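Researcher: Quick test of sequence recovery. C-alpha cells follow.
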C-alpha cells in the first residue's frame, strides 16, 4: 500500500469525519479507502479510528497521530510544489526594493550572474531607504534591517549580520586627532545617518559594560552614500554598517575607530509576501541571494 495515500486518507478521514467522504475527496472507492486505512493501522499496530452505527471518531492515539501528520502533509505538498516550480523558467518582472547602498554594493554586482541563470526574468530595483508596504506597492522582494514584520502576510528570512562602526579618513584623523573613548566624540565632527534607530544617541558595549553617548552631527543625511562620500572627503567621522564601508576600510581610505567598543549590530533580511506557493521568480531570487551571501562569506567580512 502507498504510505503517502494512507496518510493523506487518514487526514481526510479525521477532518471530514467520514470514510466515504474522504474516499470521494481522493478519488478512491470505498473498498480501496478501507484497505488503505486498515493497512495504516496494521503497520502502526494501533487503532486510529473507531466506528459505531452513527459516526466515526479518532482514538486518543489517532488524535495524536493526526496532529503530527497534518503539518507534515502540508510540508510535503509544498516541497512538491517547490520542485515543480523550480523546473519552470521564471519569467515576467521581479520588483525588488532596497536601500541605495545595498542596491549598489550587493545587488547590482550580482545581476549579471542572475540574468545569465534566468534570462527571461526582468528585474526592477526600487531604491528606497524607508520601508515600503510590499502588498500595496506591488513589491516582490524587499531587503530590510528589522528582524520581524507586524504583518503575518510578510515572510522574513535572515541573510547576514553586520557590525556598525565609526570610521574616518586618515587625513581627518591627522588634522583632528583620533578619539580614544566614546566621550571624546563630543570633540569631533560627526556624520549622521538620520534614518537610523535613535540617530542622535550611540549605545556602546565593552566587556559587558554599556555606555550611552549623545551625539550631534556636523552633517546629517537620509542616505548612507552621502555620509560615506563626506567621510572620504575628510569632513568627519561617520557611523555606518560595515557592509557599506568594508571596501574603503580594506583599501585604507577609512580607518575604524573605538574598535574595543561595539555598537548594536544590524541584521540584513530579505522579506516577501507570505504565500503557500511562492511564485518561481521570487523563490529563485531569494535562493540566489542566500547562495551568494554564503559563497561570498559576507557575514564574516562584515563582522570580523
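Model:
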Amino acid at each position: 500500500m502507498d504510505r503517502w495515500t494512507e496518510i493523506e486518507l487518514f487526514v481526510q478521514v479525521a477532518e471530514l469525519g467520514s470514510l466515504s467522504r474522504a474516499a470521494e475527496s481522493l478519488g478512491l472507492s470505498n473498498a480501496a479507502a478501507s484497505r488503505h486505512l486498515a493497512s495504516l493501522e496494521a503497520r502502526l499496530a494501533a487503532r486510529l479510528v473507531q466506528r459505531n452505527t452513527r459516526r466515526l471518531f479518532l482514538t486518543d492515539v489517532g488524535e495524536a497521530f493526526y496532529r503530527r501528520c497534518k503539518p507534515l502533509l502540508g510540508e510535503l505538498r509544498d516541497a512538491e510544489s517547490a520542485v515543480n516550480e523550480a523546473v519552470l523558467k521564471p519569467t515576467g518582472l521581479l520588483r525588488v526594493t532596497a536601500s541605495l547602498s545595498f542596491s549598489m554594493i550587493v545587488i547590482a554586482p550580482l545581476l549579471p550572474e542572475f540574468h545569465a541563470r534566468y534570462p527571461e526574468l526582468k528585474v526592477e530595483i526600487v531604491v528606497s531607504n524607508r520601508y515600503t508596504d510590499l502588498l500595496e506597492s506591488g513589491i516582490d522582494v524587499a531587503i530590510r534591517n528589522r528582524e520581524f514584520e507586524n504583518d503575518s502576510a510578510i515572510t522574513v528570512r535572515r541573510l547576514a549580520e553586520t557590525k556598525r562602526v565609526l570610521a574616518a579618513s586618515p587625513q581627518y584623523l591627522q588634522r583632528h586627532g583620533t578619539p580614544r573613548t566614546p566621550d571624546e566624540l563630543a570633540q569631533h565632527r560627526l556624520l549622521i545617518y538620520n534614518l537610523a534607530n535613535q540617530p542622535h544617541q550611540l549605545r556602546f558595549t565593552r566587556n559587558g559594560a554599556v555606555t550611552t553617548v549623545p551625539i550631534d552631527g556636523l552633517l546629517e543625511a537620509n542616505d548612507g552614500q552621502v555620509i560615506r562620500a563626506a567621510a572620504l572627503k575628510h569632513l568627519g567621522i561617520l557611523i555606518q554598517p560595515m557592509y557599506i564601508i568594508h571596501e574603503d576600510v580594506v583599501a585604507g581610505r577609512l580607518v575604524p575607530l573605538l574598535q574595543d567598543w561595539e555598537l548594536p549590530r544590524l541584521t540584513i533580511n530579505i522579506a516577501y509576501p507570505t504565500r503557500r506557493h511562492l511564485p518561481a521568480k521570487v523563490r529563485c531570487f531569494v535562493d540566489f541571494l542566500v547562495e551568494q551571501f554564503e559563497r561570498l562569506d559576507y557575514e564574516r567580512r562584515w563582522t570580523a
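The longest helix spans residues 60-86.
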